[in-house]
Amino acid sequence: MGFSTVAVLMFDRIPLFEASVPIAVFGERRDDRPEFDVRVIAAEGGPVRTDAGVTLAAPYDLDAVEGADLVIVPTWRRPSAGEPPPEEALEALRRAHSAGATVVSLCLGTFVLAATGLLDGRPATTHWRYAGLLASLHPRVEVRPDVLYVDEGDILTSAGSTGGIDLCLHLVRRSHGTQAANSIARGLVTPPHRSGGQAQYIDHPVPAPATGDPFGDTLDWALRHLDRELSVDGMAARALMSRRTFDRRFRQVTGTTPAQWLLHQRVLHAQRLLETTAEPVERVARRAGFASAVALRPHFRRHVGVSPTAYRETFGMGAGDGAGAADGVNLSVGG
């Protein structure tokens, strides 16, 4: 799975930052890093216009894909427009994979890779905002919206803009070792590993339940009293329903059970407290309805992908300045 020749396919009207990621990771030459032959390809011929109004002059055409060990599609124009990728580029990707190249997509580039058919029956990811669209357009792809990247050996996909950096560093680490990957990460001033997946970056607004009926009022009341010990039987009584009727109505309205909903809302509340207060994790846990920080942590990690303190270090008021108490931060990446 080693590689030295990297082909980067650039399409017209693509986001500029994502397009630059593989060049930033593989293109700089220094004594303490492996040297890569990077071929930047105009996948549709001619200059490549970006969505930032900057035009790039890519020196290679699709013929340069042949012989590359690693072929990367760094991004694609907004997929909501429904425009299919050009068949010539899709065929070049298929030939490269058939010849033994490792084929990679970053962020929206997964839509191009999915159009080749190479992802059929495989897990893959893309930016969480477009994961549903990817699943709709390519139902044979097993879309995983909650991870930073998916490594299937000969085919890899990543999520989001900086998720592309994560995957490119993973490729270096996989083929050239940790020291090489760490050197590149230091040059980019980025962590060589990131903990958790996309779940920590997805905004889940607390829903506003319908009011004007006892059921909606009960959900609203529960959201305002998450720090209390709330039982499903007590909620059903407050909604003037039998437990069985309440459970049935709850699933119809929310798509889940009362217990699962309560747990999810408590984790969401803990997220907001970690973002907006400097209270200790123990206090945050109790305000969100957990018995202790010990009780909060496994649920938080399962829903969000990282520990409460790791989340606060990224999204809290003091993010970036070292704020946050120790909470057993796990720096291994989830792929």
UniProtKB/TrEMBL annotation:
Concerning Pfam families, the annotation shows: DJ-1_PfpI, HTH_18
Q: Which InterPro entries match?
A: Class_I_gatase-like, DJ-1/PfpI, Homeodomain-like_sf, HTH_AraC, HTH_AraC-typ_CS, INH-QAR
The HTH araC/xylS-type domain covers 216-314
Q: Which keywords describe this protein according to UniProt?
A: DNA-binding, Transcription, Transcription regulation
What terms describe the molecular function in GO for this protein?
A: DNA-binding transcription factor activity; sequence-specific DNA binding
In terms of Gene3D superfamilies, this protein maps to: 3.40.50.880, Homeodomain-like
Per its UniProt record, what PANTHER family does this chain match?
ARAC-FAMILY TRANSCRIPTIONAL REGULATOR, HTH-TYPE TRANSCRIPTIONAL REGULATOR RV1931C
What name does this protein carry? AraC family transcriptional regulator
Which species is this record about? Planobispora takensis
